[in-house]
Amino acid sequence: MDLTLDDARSFLARTPAVLRAMVTGLPDRWLDVNEGEGTFTVRDVLGHLVTGEGAAEGADWIPRFRLILEHGEARPFVAFDRTMFRRRWGGASAPELLDAFAAARAESLALFDGFALTPADFARTGTHPDFGRVTLGQLLATWVAHDFTHISQITRVIAKQYGEAVGPWRERLRVVRG
Fold first, then answer.
1. Distance of CA 129 to CAs 59, 77, 86, Å?
2. CATH of residue 37
């Protein structure tokens, strides 16, 4: 399917509400489970999403759009620290994280709108520290897919807790198997 600005923005705008609906009211025992050593908890995913947003130093999406628009491939993206949320948001409650993410996403979308992108901008290029040359269109599609990845991850982390409880249906429920 072709990437469109309207679709991408629509999906990005929905993510805070989707996450709020998924995790509001969950007790800590559900927010702090993971899929094993070195994996994210639900709370970790929320913290990770917060730190990727906005225009703050160390954020992921908006600074990379700016680099492509202002410098093209001349200045590579700064590497994103996927676990920096632990320093800033470690121990934060789900409501704090959800509110922070909603505010940061609103800021990101306002800045994104200010870029006044057109489909022609999708071909503009930048330099990723691991992947090399990337396009603005790929960055936008990745931002959307990143949201879906983490929504799916939260669903999977929670569902896996019922892996044994579902009994013989386990073979038909990929979400509880991994």
1. 15, 6, 23
2. 1.20.120.450
